[in-house]
């Protein structure tokens, strides 16, 4: 696997060990994207955030 894949796998493993912190990061990133795009892509960011949470077993939900 390439370096980017290795980094992604390490990040996923770290998130699994700290799901609460990872949830905060995902929520923050989602909020920033929604703010910068004027919520134009809200459905897509919700879907991406949910997929990210599922990848590490996070428990957060979209705040919309």
> Which value, in Å, is the CA radius of gyration?
12 Å
Strand content: under 5%
The whole-number mean of residue pLDDT values reads 88
Unreliable runs, pLDDT <50, ≥5 residues?
none
Q: N-to-C SSE series? A: HHH
Biggest pleated-sheet summary: none
Question: What are the key terms here?
Answer:
64 residues, mainly alpha, 75% helix, Antitoxin, Antitoxin_Rv0909/MT0933
What does this structure look like?
This protein has one domain. The model has no long low-confidence stretch (mean pLDDT 88). It has helices at 3-17, 19-36, 42-56. The chain contains three helices and no strands. With 64 residues, the chain is an all-alpha fold.
Short description:
With 64 residues, this protein is an all-alpha fold. It contains 3 helices and no strands.
Write the SSE topology:
Elements: H1 3-17, H2 19-36, H3 42-56
Protein name: Antitoxin
Pfam families: MT0933_antitox
Region (Disordered): 1-64
């Amino acid at each position: 696997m390439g370096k980017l894949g290795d980094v992604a796998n390490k990040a996923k493993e770290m998130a699994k060990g700290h799901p609460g912190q990872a949830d905060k990061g995902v929520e923050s990133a989602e909020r920033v994207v929604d703010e910068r795009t004027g919520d134009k892509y809200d459905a897509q960011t919700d879907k991406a955030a949910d997929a990210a949470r599922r990848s590490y077993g996070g428990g957060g939900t979209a705040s919309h």
